[in-house]
Amino acid sequence: MVLSAIHLNAQTPAGNASLPTSADTSSWYNGLVIGTDLLNPLAGAMGKDYSSYEVSVEYGLKRKYFPIAEVGMSQSDNNSDFGPVFHSPLAPYGRIGINYAFSQSAKSFAYIGARLGFSKFSYDVSNITVTSGYWDESITTALSGEKSNATWTEFLGGLRVSITNHILMGWNVRAKFRTHVKETLYSSPAYIPGYGANSSKTFGIHFSIYYKF
Amino acid sequence: MGKILNITGGILFAVLLFSSCSESSCTESTVADALAVFYTKSTHAAIAFDSISVKGIGQKSDSLLLNKSTKVKNLSLPLRVKSDTTAFEIRFFRSNSATTDLTDTVRFFHQTRPQYLSPECGCSVFYHIDSVAYTRHRIDTVRIQQPEITNQNEEHLQILF
């Protein structure tokens, strides 16, 4: 249905002269757009172990290229089935990249994009219990203030729709690939702000609202 | 109409995909034992022993790690988590190459490092071997090859005969 919607919109004739048209690519400057993600702030309420709050600033060039910067704060709490409790307080992250509108109509456009992401954060882990079965002994300990950082790349595709002359909404899906994460002597972070669960690859979804100046 | 389809479809798509993401399972080992491999001192060739018993010194129930095991080429030795010293008694039973039973003791001095691996795998304990002391009844030399004992499958010690 979503793909059909992209196709249908790509065929819609540009009827409103005040909105951007696919042919209107003569000007390099097409305005500044700020946005915020509406989905990930609700992640905790939807059963996830994190919440993220994010704003984006992008700049339209020839209505096709959109250099973008995204900054946010994210926190995570994870209770493992094995006992340890991971807590990462709100920490900043950022991404820079570009979107390319490959299909557009008067009121919508579909795009692909790429990002470079980075984050610096700290975390605590409590209730770390390790056991030696042979020696029949165990200890329980905790880690506090473990410091880490990470970088990653993202490739994404999405759709954006004009609601009014200044308001837009849209979603995008992202494939994320971790390029670096700092592990400490005693741990590896369970969660990377702005990236997600600390695995070599993951994915993310944004549903955002934008204001176009 | 197209706009409504786009927005509704986008919301549904995003929420469904968002909600359906499930946690992955553990794909790494949580075991971090010291791996000691047997070699001859003269040619540095790998060797196997016909009959060996191994037990931890101080183990509460005196249970054996190996009990007259045959064709033993290496030992996987679990270190203690509540102590910085772990000792093992290795008994080499009489065989073609030895006319009497011989017993050696190998003692590890180590740092214990409890680890948080991930939500899927939980915890483990890694070690750093500071030094090793040993008797030389059957053993000639014990070399530390890799002092960091983690959940990677590596050769940590070479025991030469």
Structure description:
The complex is a heterodimer of chains A (213) and B (161). Chain A has 213 residues and is mainly beta. Chain A contains one helix and ten strands; from the N terminus they run αββββββββββ. Chain A has a single domain (26-212), classed as Porin, CATH 2.40.160. The termini of chain B are far apart. Chain B has a domain at 49-160. Helix content of chain B is 12%, strand content 43%. Chain B is built from one helix and ten strands, in the order αββββββββββ. The model of chain B has no long low-confidence stretch (mean pLDDT 88). Chain B has 161 residues and is mainly beta. Classes of the chains: A mainly beta (213), B mainly beta (161). At the A-B interface, helix 1, strand 5, strand 6, strand 7 and strand 10 of A face helix 1, strand 6 and strand 7 of B.
Q: Give helix and strand order of chain A, one letter per element, not per position.
A: HEEEEEEEEEE
Helix-strand category of chain B? mainly beta
| Distance linking N and C termini of chain A | 31 Å
Structural class of chain A: mainly beta
Q: Termini distance of chain B?
A: 83 Å
Q: Could you list the spans of chain A in which at least 5 consecutive residues all have pLDDT below 50?
A: 1-23
The total count of strands of chain B amounts to 10
What portion of the residues of chain B fall into strands of 2 or more residues? Answer: 35-45%
Largest sheet of chain B: 6 strands, antiparallel
Outline of chain A: elongated
Summed over residues and divided by their number, the pLDDT of chain A gives a mean of 87
Summarize the entry for a quick read.
Chain A is mainly beta and 213 residues long. Chain A has one helix at 2-10, and strands spanning 29-37, 50-61, 65-79, 85-104, 108-132, 137-162, 167-181, 191-192, 196-197, 201-212. The model of chain B has no long low-confidence stretch (mean pLDDT 88).
